[in-house]
Amino acid sequence: MGKHSRVFMSLKTRLGLRRRLASGERTACHTPRPLVSRKPLKALVIISRDLDKGSTRYRIVQYAGWLRARNFELEFVHRRDVTARRVADCDVVFNQKCLPGTFPSRRLLQAARRVVFDFDDAIFTRPGTPFSWWTQWRVNRRFRLWVRGADVVTAANQVLADAARRLKVEPVVLPMALDPAVWKPAPRRDDGTVRIGWAGAPANLPQIERLEPVLAAVLQQHPSARLAILSGRAPRWSLPCEHHPYQPERETPFVQSLDIGLLPLVEDAFTRGKSPIKSLQYLACGVPVVGNVFGATREILQPSHCLPVATDADWIPALASLIRSSDQRAALSNAGRHFVLAHHDMNRVGETLLAALAGPGG
Predict the structure, then answer these.
(1) Domain 194-343 has CATH 3.90.180.10
(2) Element at 289 (helix H, strand E)
(3) What is the pTM for the complete model shown?
(4) Where are the domains of the chain?
(5) pLDDT per residue over 21-36, tens digit each?
């Protein structure tokens, strides 16, 4: 159904459409619509924060140039600024896991020619304290509305895809991906030390800080080991460590400088749905990973290129093994790099994204 026919849709039809959207039923105007055009197509991307936010950056921003070369222009709009008129003026809407209120969501879905709803987190829950029953009901309602109202749903992993399947919608799995020309191995300094490191946002520092006793034991037992952290603030601990304040241009060189990457995670309903981009950054740069592996993380961290740990006590022997054996580090390094090239190369994943945006025949 084209833009002008939507404008002249009868009141009765519109009210019926609203009722069906509210119930989550797929309608005729929300069957996949191909976009056939020789002029550049415009995708309006709805985001929840700025363009440097991890999800926004790796789910869509990094593809801007790649898509431009394939006839797609991206325009970004914050969720609070998006309007039905602006949506109607674009060829396709890419909603990056935003859940506006029910009424505005319905208006956007009705106005759009084509909608791709993308989520790379378990946005129907949150880390730590669960939602109140009232908030959970509202979040579920909005999530259901977008999943059932979109032309295509893209999910970062099978765990999240199952959430869409529970709503009777078959999603497209669009894995997290990186540019392998940027995230690649670099020569490491040969000074006899083994650099163990972690990079992440200040909000996630408690995950690494809880390992202070483990890391203290490792540093004491292995004098060649060095600890390095890249984050917006320094960890609150007494361990000797190199703290590198976060700057975007420092992130890749920091990861490339590591011999072992740490991925501590605390399991809950939210983290079970995560595909940690940090794990892919480590692997793409040939950095062996030691980390907690559960939920969707299992799709990325596998025994061929990772040493999984289940308890805090498991960290010490896993790290000791890698510190002692450069051969083991090299084997895991090569396997991890090849895994990313095979499954998480943005050039390959981009083809799936392009197909979702363009639709059948696009």
Answers:
(1) no
(2) strand 289-292
(3) 0.87
(4) 3-177+346-358, 194-343
(5) 444 444 433 444 555 5
Instruction: Give the whole-angstrom CA distance, residue 97 versus residue 361.
Output: 26
Cα separation, 217 vs 226, in Å, equals 12
CB 96 within 8 A of CB 45: yes
What is the three-class DSSP state of 267? coil
pLDDT tens column, 57-108: 999 999 999 999 999 999 999 999 999 999 999 999 999 999 999 999 999 9
Q: Kindly give, in sequence order, each residue whose CB lies less than 8 Å from that of residue 327, ignoring residues fewer than 6 positions away.
A: none
CB 196 within 8 A of CB 259: yes
DSSP 309-362: ESSHHHHHHHHHHHHH-HHHHHHHHHHHHHHHHHH-BHHHHHHHHHHHHH-TT-
Domains 3-177+346-358 and 194-343 share a fold: yes
d(CA 301, CA 304): 8
Tell me, which fold does domain 3-177+346-358 have in CATH? Rossmann fold (3.40.50)
